[in-house]
């Protein structure tokens, strides 16, 4: 196994986008940031120097970080932020994971521009469970704001209103030529006729589920969240923020130019919808030069096409039979969604009808500590930082996706965690609510991947258990819970430490849609959290 050393300098860079010049925070002046390529079993040593003006941390999204929460990255959860001028070195090993993951800042909205691909190739001497593609291309879908994304967030948090929507969606940092002033920068990929290409698609957008398609080419899904899947064909891929999907296609069409494109799959039914499409160009090397024909556009579903979204997401299966936990030790039921907090009319009360926006799980809106991180507080037994009374079921039962009584719209606030024994088998029902609006929430669990054993619309009820897939359910690290519906996940709590679980829509995260698990140590060194590194940042 190889040890890869990298240096990440978080710094400001000037870029031109959408007819303007902007100072953005980047890693090493690159936007998107560097692609890291490693093999399964390798180790990474990434020295992060923060030369920007905001606190920062880097999260290695989907890396399990076994017994090593210190390298996970979410600020105030597993570490204090790296302050401007300071350095922290992330050291971790890839243990039995292959495919496409990514890294991103995990500090307020910094990840809008601080993100990159993390490609994990098979162990040397082994190969993919599918024919080796000739070409591999990371496709990072993102969202662009003309304003500084951190100030967009700060304004929203100050006023209690919903943050401004982004000004463009992007592919590898570029909006593409359907946006004004963007044709120059449109990303172009060259392919040989007949070759097979692997697209490693990452949804790095802050707040938006995205449909993705490639004109005239059939796509075959082979992996998601760095876990292989039973291959299936599709013309459109749906990714929630945080998710990755690997697809193969063969360049078997007439030599020419084809758009790959992404557009929104609606979240809130009545949220402002930015009806735009980001594009990049796939060009056959043998395409006749000089013919500057407009590339062929793919057909993308409409932004409210839940039927297509569901038809896609329900096709995922593990490649073979898997061992799903069946005896459940921890049976948890979490309602998820938005909320509104009453406030006194004024500049800080700009939500609908004298309210501020909030979001919650089981009606607790999560508050990050500031004096230290949760992982440090747990490890060092620092009292008063968190409580361990996160409710394992909703405080009251109600018709979750029906007409929710107004009295239930207001969450409470707290830093509440749920503690579990090492090795527990866990089931979590994630139930969307119709508070404010029903939405599709991409819920991400750090330090783990989990089986998605069931999902559906409306209220989860015990009868839904009958439809669970306990044979070959897919594994993921981020589950898109259907709009106005539910999903059920299962996993074994075999990675000790404090692990964040949250909506990967960053506006929801900022409003408190999060909780954290403490997974206790088991017996001996191999079931216990390692000691913290000496350079762990201080708060
Ligand atoms: Cu990619 Cu806590 O997130």
TrEMBL record:
It is found in: Secreted, Extracellular space, Apoplast. Its EC number is 1.10.3.2. Its main location: secreted. Its cofactor is Cu cation. The keyword Zinc does not apply. Residues 10-123, 137-286, 390-521 form the Plastocyanin-like domain. It is an enzyme of class 1 (oxidoreductase). Binds 4 Cu cations per monomer. It catalyses: 4 hydroquinone + O2 = 4 benzosemiquinone + 2 H2O. GO terms for cellular component: apoplast. CDD domains: CuRO_1_LCC_plant, CuRO_2_LCC_plant, CuRO_3_LCC_plant. One of its GO terms (molecular function) is hydroquinone:oxygen oxidoreductase activity. It comes from the Eukaryota. Coiled coil: none annotated. One of its GO terms (biological process) is lignin catabolic process. InterPro entries: Cu-oxidase-like_N, Cu-oxidase_2nd, Cu-oxidase_C, Cu-oxidase_fam, Cupredoxin, CuRO_1_LCC, CuRO_2_LCC, CuRO_3_LCC. Belongs to the multicopper oxidase family. Lignin degradation and detoxification of lignin-derived products. This is Laccase.
């Amino acid at each position: 196994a190889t040890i890869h050393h990298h240096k990440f300098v978080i710094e400001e860079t000037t870029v031109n986008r959408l007819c303007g010049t902007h100072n953005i925070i980047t890693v090493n002046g690159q936007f998107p940031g560097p692609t890291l390529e490693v093999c399964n079993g390798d180790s990474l040593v990434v020295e992060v120097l923060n030369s920007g003006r905001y606190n920062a941390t880097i999260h290695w999204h989907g890396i399990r970080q076994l017994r090593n929460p210190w390298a996970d990255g979410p600020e105030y959860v597993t570490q204090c932020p790296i302050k401007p001028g300071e350095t922290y070195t992330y050291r971790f090993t890839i243990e039995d994971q292959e495919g496409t993951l990514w890294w991103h800042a995990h500090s307020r909205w910094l990840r809008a521009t601080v993100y990159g691909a993390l490609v994990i190739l098979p162990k040397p001497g082994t190969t993919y469970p599918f024919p080796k593609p000739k070409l591999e291309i990371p496709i990072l879908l993102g969202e662009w704001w003309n304003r500084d994304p951190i100030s967009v967030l700060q304004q929203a948090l100050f006023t209690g209103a919903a943050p401004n929507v982004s000004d463009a969606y992007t592919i590898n940092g570029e909006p593409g030529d359907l946006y004004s002033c963007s044709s120059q920068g449109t990303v172009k990929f060259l392919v040989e006729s007949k070759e097979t290409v692997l697209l490693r698609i990452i949804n790095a957008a802050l707040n938006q589920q995205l449909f993705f398609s490639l004109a005239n080419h059939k796509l075959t899904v082979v992996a998601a969240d760095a876990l292989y899947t039973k291959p299936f064909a599709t013309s459109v891929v749906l990714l929630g923020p945080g998710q990755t999907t690997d697809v193969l296609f063969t360049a078997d069409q007439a030599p020419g130019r084809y758009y790959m494109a992404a557009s929104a799959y609606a979240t809130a039914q009545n949220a402002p919808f930015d009806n735009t499409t980001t594009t990049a160009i796939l060009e056959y090397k043998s395409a006749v030069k000089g013919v500057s024909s407009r590339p062929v556009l793919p057909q993308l579903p409409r932004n409210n096409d839940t039927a297509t979204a569901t038809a896609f997401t329900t096709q995922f299966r593990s490649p073979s039979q898997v061992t799903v936990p069946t005896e459940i030790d921890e049976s948890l039921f979490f309602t998820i969604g938005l909320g509104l907090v009453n406030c006194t009319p004024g500049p800080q009360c700009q939500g609908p009808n004298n309210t501020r926006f909030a979001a919650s799980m089981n009606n607790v809106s999560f508050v990050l500590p500031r004096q230290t991180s949760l992982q440090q507080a747990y490890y060092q037994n620092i009292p008063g930082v968190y409580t361990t009374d996160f409710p394992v079921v909703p405080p009251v039962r109600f018709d979750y996706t029906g007409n929710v009584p107004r009295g239930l719209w207001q969450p409470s606030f707290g830093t509440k965690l749920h503690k579990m024994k090492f090795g527990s088998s866990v089931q979590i029902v994630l139930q969307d609510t119709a508070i404010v609006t029903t939405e599709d929430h991409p819920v991400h669990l750090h330090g783990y991947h989990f089986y998605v054993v069931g999902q559906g619309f409306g209220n989860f009820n015990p009868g839904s258990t009958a439809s669970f897939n306990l044979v070959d359910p897919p594994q993921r690290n981020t589950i898109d819970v259907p709009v106005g519906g539910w999903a059920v996940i299962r996993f074994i709590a075999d990675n000790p430490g404090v692990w964040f679980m949250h909506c990967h829509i960053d506006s929801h995260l900022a409003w408190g849609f999060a909780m954290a698990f403490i997974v206790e140590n088991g017996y001996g060194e191999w079931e216990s959290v390692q000691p913290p590194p000496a350079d762990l940042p201080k708060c």
